[in-house]
Amino acid sequence: MSKYYFQVERAGVHTTFQDLGRFNVQHLGICPGGSMDSNLLKISNKLVNNSLQEGVLEFAYQGPRLKLISGNAKIAITGNVHFTIERQNNTSLGKQYNCFETYILKEGDTLDILATKKSVYGYLSIEGGFQLKKFYNSVSTLTRSAIGPNDGKKIDENLKIFFIKNNENNNKKIVQWKNNFNDNIIRVLEGPQFHYFSKQSINEFFLSKYKITNHSDRMGMRLEGHKLENIVSSNIASEGILKGAIQITGDGNPIILMADHPTIGGYPKIATVISADFAKVTQLSPGKEIIFKKVKLLEAEKYFHEQQEILNKIYQQITI
Fold first, then answer.
1. Distance between CA 48 and CA 101 in Å, rounded?
2. Could you tell me which residues come within 8 angstroms of residue 267 by beta carbon, excluding any fewer than 6 positions away?
3. Which of 61, 77, 302, 303 could form a disulfide with 13 if both were Cys (CB 3.0 to 4.6 A apart)?
């Protein structure tokens, strides 16, 4: 086992280890899971010279407070996050720390991730990665299934978090990432049960604003708004589902399935959030409103490739 580690002094609201997900096991009742915002996870890893799929710490609202007990570490935080680094020699007092930059932590320093600001989720990566055991080729944590690192639980106070590499250089990386966390127009494709709903309800679905409720987490995002009229059946035979699917429950309100969604479901699905907008919707907090916009498959593919081009330019900028 590595001798380099952090001690958790505060765990935060919901802090877990995540990577890009656990695939090809949904037939076993295990959903892919993985990060809510894969763009931020990838950028954080690239900043510290990791592979894009390396496991990181994902946190929501308030992150952890971590004291570096042994070793030196290069870290990066992505998102819209307020954090401080408390140096053992007190040289950090009053200093401004920014996301999308690398920082060197020395033994005895404390990293305090105080809060996310405009976003919901943020990510902490470390050069060389955390020392984590994979399950089905992934270190993503599924708390409801107790799968993943730390016995499938959120991180705990006093937990020791081990990492692999002791930092030996001070090379700094900075990247510019523009993300409008207030953009609430979410593009969707027609769902497999789109025709289950009346024409009036379909029109209302795309013309109305839906409010995100407090009953939202890594499994699903419950919305309130215009109740949709189902003209066929409010239930279907259970079938495989995927993240981004928008189910309509018996009360007529939508639920957007998130990263930790069930593997099968029996509610009709009116639409599916396109891949390019999934990260965007995950960063919208309770109380905000969503407007859905229908696009065609070719458009969704175009938006996906445009997003990948932007990310590739960022990766190139980091490696220069």
1. 9
2. 234, 235, 236, 247, 248, 249, 250, 255
3. 61
Show the CA angle centred on residue 300, arms to residues 299 and 302, nearest 5°. 65
In this structure, the number of other CB atoms found within 10 A of the CB of residue 29 comes to 10
**Bridge partner residues of 83 (DSSP):** 113
- How is residue 293 written in tokens? 């916009």
In angstroms, the CA 15 to CA 150 distance is 11
User: Could you report the per-residue pLDDT of 258-291, keeping only the tens digit for each?
Assistant: 999 999 998 999 999 999 999 999 999 999 999 9
Spatial separation of the C-alpha atoms in residues 58 and 297, rounded to whole Å: 31
CA dist 115 and 59 (Å) reads 9
Query: What domains can be seen in the chain, in order of their start residue?
Result: 4-163 (no CATH), 185-309 (2.40.100.10)
